[in-house]
Amino acid sequence: MPIFTAPDFDNHEQVVFCNDAETGLKAIIAIHDTTRGPSLGGCRMWPYASEAAAVTDALRLSRGMTYKSALAGLPLGGGKSVIIGDAKTQKSPALFRAFGRFVDSLGGRYIAAEDVGTGVADIEAMRQVTRHVAGTAGGSGDPSPVTAYGVFQGIRAAAKAKLGRDDLAGLRVAVQGLGHVGLDLARQLYEAGAALIVADIDLDRIARATTAYRAEAMPADRIHAADVDIFAPCALGAILNDATIPEIKAGIIAGAANNQLAEERHGAALMKRGILYAPDYAINAGGIINIHHESAGKYDRAAALRQVEGIYDTLLEIFARAAAEGIPTSDAADRVAETRFGKHRQAA
Ligand code: NAD
Description:
oxidoreductase; nucleotide-binding; 2 domains; 5-stranded mixed β-sheet; Glu/Leu/Phe/Val/Trp_DH; binds nicotinamide-adenine-dinucleotide; NAD(P)-bd_dom_sf; nucleotide binding
């Protein structure tokens, strides 16, 4: 497959193909942009259907990290890595040490953290051979509660911009997905006085929300159409698409899930319907902010949370820019981020 001319290449600085015969490691490290600092991003382990699919995923995810970190004001660039394999059957400490040696060979241009299919134990295996890792045991730990805190700040910003509200009391919020982020978000919303409608494919998770937070349950495939003020997608990507957008009743969409828009054009479709969309990589940056506080030195949770509260102002800036320029909020977020990592210089 072509690389330099691939549609998702987008001026990547470096793409590294890692092969280790002894452990069977086959991995790709994509470094999109290091203008603002070393690239930091998760290492995903996934049984990709093809090598092309793995390359595309690495390229897209690393580009997304550049935008996310720039928008969060972090001194970090964007990178991501993928290991081709089944996380359930093909993991071993030796595999992650082999991968860690490739990370080390980049001299700090890429810092690896957890992602889908990898966990703290895998990062610890990498740490035996490289210091360029984050999200270690005894470090900042699980980023999800901090991500949920950031999403809560983003929901507050959206309620301010769309409804002129300074609090969430009495607002109806639909939370799709009650996992690590969604359930903690539900708690925060409940404590802020919001009424909750929830959905998950895991009945146990629903039971926890209905019992602890007086939530009402809804079928997982209909939650996007709930009659609410705010829809918070916290499960899957591509949930905002041609089928769901016409059915959404909420005036605000603000949730944790990555890649919520099925395609870029769906940002414009939401604007056309008058729905205020909090761009995913702006509202869900709490986790990367938390990890940055670990990789930058001694981890201070209070300092990390204070920086996460900045998501409120970042979103207000995006909403204001979108309104002033008559563009979708997703485009406004891209423009704010691109100013921050100097995309104009790349294109020159
Ligand atoms: P998770 O796997 O812990 O939770 C996902 C939940 O969604 C699970 O409870 C699962 O049962 C449920 N789910 C799956 N399919 C569903 C469906 N069709 N309908 C309803 N529920 C469904 O994941 P998480 O860590 O809570 O992350 C949630 C989302 O936020 C993901 O898109 C993730 O990429 C994104 N995100 C997470 C973090 C973080 O710090 N964990 C940071 C940034 C972005």
